[in-house]
Design goal:
alpha+beta, 2 domains, eight-stranded mixed sheet, 20% helix
C-alpha cells in the first residue's frame, strides 16, 4: 500500500500532495495507541499519550479528515511552496501522522551523501521526526498527542482545552463568597498556572451543590495551609490561592501508613 505525505502551506486553504512512497514512513507494526483522556491535571509518562475521543465532533477537526482522502484530488506541491509549509500529514492506511513545520526542520547546509560519496550544496532537505506531533486514528475517531502545545499548532483552538482564565474571569473568581482577598492582592497578581486552574475549577464549582461546596471547603481546611475563618479563606498571596484551588480540585490526600499529608501533582480518574 502506498503511503502519502501531504502538506499545508501557510496562508493557503488547500492541502497539497507532497510525495508518494512505497516505504513506510512511520513504523506501525509495534505502534500502540492507548492514550489517557486529555486533562490538564493529568501528567503522562514519556511512553504515554493523551487522547481526545470523538475528535470529529470537536471544533478542531480539519475538513480533509472528515472525508475520504484521495490523492488524485490534490495538486502536487511546488518547490517554492515547500518552503512555506505549516505542517505535513503522512497518511498510512487510516492513520494520519501530523508534524508541525518550522524553520528548524529545514536544512540548507552543505552535506555529503554516504551512499554516493558526493558533496551536496544546493539540495536543501526537510527532516521528519521519528515521532509525530499528533496521530489521528480514523477508525476510532481519536486524536493522540504528547504535548498540547505541539498539537494545537496543527489543530487551531485546541489550546482552549487548557486555557487561562481572563482578567474578568479571574476577578469574578476572587470575588467568591468563600474567599477573603487581601487588598494588596489583585487579579493582576494571579500567575498563569493559577489562571489555568481557575478556568478549570469554575466549571467544577458550577456542578457542586451548596452542601458539596461546603464539604470541599472543609476538606481544604483540613490540610491547614491557608487561614479559614467565618467560611472564608484568607488570600494574601498567589500561593494561598494555589492551595485553595488544589483543594477544589481535590488533590490532597493522606497516606494510609504514616498518615502523611500530600498533594497529588497529577490526577487520573479510575
Amino acid at each position: 500500500m502506498a503511503n502519502y505525505i501531504y502538506g499545508k502551506v501557510k496562508r493557503k486553504q488547500n492541502l497539497y500532495r507532497v510525495i508518494e512512497s512505497d516505504t513506510e514512513i512511520y513504523e506501525t507494526e509495534n505502534l500502540v495507541l492507548n492514550g489517557v483522556d486529555y486533562n490538564p491535571a493529568t501528567l503522562i509518562e514519556d511512553e504515554e499519550l493523551y487522547k481526545v475521543s470523538s475528535f470529529s465532533q470537536t471544533d478542531f477537526i480539519l475538513d480533509f479528515l472528515q472525508n475520504d482522502l484521495d490523492s488524485v484530488n490534490y495538486d502536487q506541491i511546488t518547490k517554492e511552496d515547500l518552503k512555506k509549509l505549516s505542517f505535513i500529514c503522512t497518511v498510512q492506511g487510516n492513520l494520519y501522522f501530523f508534524q508541525a513545520i518550522n524553520s528548524s526542520f529545514f536544512i540548507s547546509k552543505k552535506w555529503f551523501s554516504i551512499d554516493e560519496l558526493t558533496l551536496e550544496t544546493n539540495k536543501p532537505i526537510i527532516t521528519i521526526n521519528s515521532y509525530a506531533d499528533a496521530i489521528y486514528d480514523k477508525d476510532n475517531d481519536t486524536l493522540y498527542f504528547k504535548k498540547l502545545a505541539s498539537a494545537q499548532k496543527i489543530f487551531k483552538g485546541m489550546d482552549q482545552l487548557y486555557r487561562s482564565a481572563t482578567d474578568a474571569e479571574t476577578q469574578v473568581f476572587l470575588e467568591n463568597d468563600f474567599l477573603e482577598v487581601d487588598e494588596g492582592f489583585q487579579s493582576g497578581n494571579v500567575t498563569i498556572p493559577n489562571r489555568k486552574r481557575i478556568a478549570l475549577v469554575n466549571e467544577t464549582l458550577s456542578k457542586f451543590s451548596d452542601d458539596e461546596k461546603q464539604a470541599i471547603y472543609n476538606y481544604t481546611n483540613q490540610y491547614g495551609q491557608v487561614n479559614y475563618e467565618n467560611g472564608k479563606f484568607k488570600i494574601e498571596s498567589d500561593d494561598d490561592l494555589k492551595f485553595v484551588l488544589w483543594g477544589i480540585e481535590q488533590r490532597f490526600y493522606t497516606t494510609p501508613i504514616g498518615a502523611e499529608k500530600r498533594v497529588a501533582n497529577s490526577i487520573i480518574s479510575i
